[in-house]
Amino acid sequence: MQAVQFHEVGGPEVLQYGEVEQPTPAAGQVRLRVAASAYNAADNGMRAGFLPIPIQLPHIPGYDVSGTVDAIAEGVTGLTVGDAVIAFLPMDRDGGAAESVVAPAEAVVAAPTSIPLADAAALPSVALTAWQALFDDGRLTAGQRLLVVGAGGVVGKYAVQLAKRAGAHVIATASPRSADAVRAAGADQVIDHTDVDLLDALDGQVDVLLNLAPIEPEQFAADVAAVRDGGVVVSTTAFMATPGDESRGVRAATVFVLPNRERLTELVALVDAGALTVEVTRRIPLADLPALHAEGAAGRIVGKVIVLP
User: Fold this and answer.
1) pLDDT tens per residue across span 7-40
2) Beta-strand (E) ranges in 158-200?
3) Which pick of 16, 37, 218, 268 has the fewest CB atoms within 10 Å?
4) What's the CA gap between 309 and 304, in Å, rounded?
5) Contact predicate 82/30, CB 8 Å
6) Cβ atoms 299, 275 nearer than 8 A
7) Is residue 162 helix, strand or coil?
8) CA distances from 43 to 10, 24, 37, 168 (A)
9) Is 152 helix (H, G, I), strand (E, B) or coil?
């Protein structure tokens, strides 16, 4: 089968497109005929060697995947050859940037039926990140005020949609390029972070601050003033500490997304109910993945990109 893999960590040039052996599922696993994998910034970090996730080389990236079950090993129940599925694959194992991939059965759920199967690869890890940030770490509830910093990114738009559905008042920062999309996702107020000071633009403190942007640590620490006493600051930027304020009881939490089959099934149901929109901005062939990694390394990727085998 055709795949993209790297034998050593380094720049995008270490990625190689070519023929590799098709994997065989072990007990408790299924094999998927890949419809698409999704590019994530963490794929770039693992390839470059600065993200501390232990991988075995050579490694095939792409831990978000959609596809069709085409082989089932012993010990697997509830799945049938031909099922259309999505999965958030273990990040330390080979991913879906290939024509086939094996997946633990417990990572696989039925794909949404209301969108193309390939596009469904854009859902798993980013939607789970948004959910876990808001409700597991942020403990957001109806009636609370949420501030999303960096809402124009892929996780941000899921976060806005999920928070509005939960009954929160959502304030979001976004650039002029993404402001309309953030409003369409349901934000009650959109602040142009390129034009105004965040603290000056707020009309009061918030219960939860969710940071999704690579802001300077000093700015992040200053933004904690936006959170009420007893509130919480949540961040997905694991490369820097999440600030809180113990003197005011402001809790700090950093999100490390975890697989959750039950939650992913709920997110699929929201997509099919029309309550959650899956956005795909580009679709590229597998052979172009090294060039996409080069774009990612240069910070030029906008929106969600899926990779078609």
Assistant:
1) 999 999 999 999 999 999 999 999 999 999 999 9
2) 169-174, 189-192
3) 218
4) 17
5) no
6) no
7) helix
8) 12, 23, 11, 32
9) coil
Tokens 């500490």: give the residue.
241
Longest dimension (CA), the chain: 60
Residue environment code for 256-290, b if the CB has 16+ CB neighbours within 10 A, otherwise e: ebebbeebbeebbebbeeeebebebeebeebeebb
Q: In sequence order, what are the residues at sequence separation of 6 or more whose Cβ sits closer than 8 angstroms to the Cβ of residue 202?
A: 147, 171, 191, 226
Residue with tokens 């006493």: 229
Per-residue pLDDT reduced to its tens digit, 267-289: 999 999 999 999 999 999 999 99
Report the sign of the C-alpha dihedral through residues 163, 210, 132, 185, in that order.
positive
C-alpha distance across the termini of the chain, in Å: 10
Tokens read off for 42: 């963490």
For residue 43 the two structure tokens come to: 């794929």
Of 274, 257, 32, the C-alpha closest to 128 is 257
Task: Tell me the torsion sign for CA atoms 42, 297, 19, 36.
Answer: positive
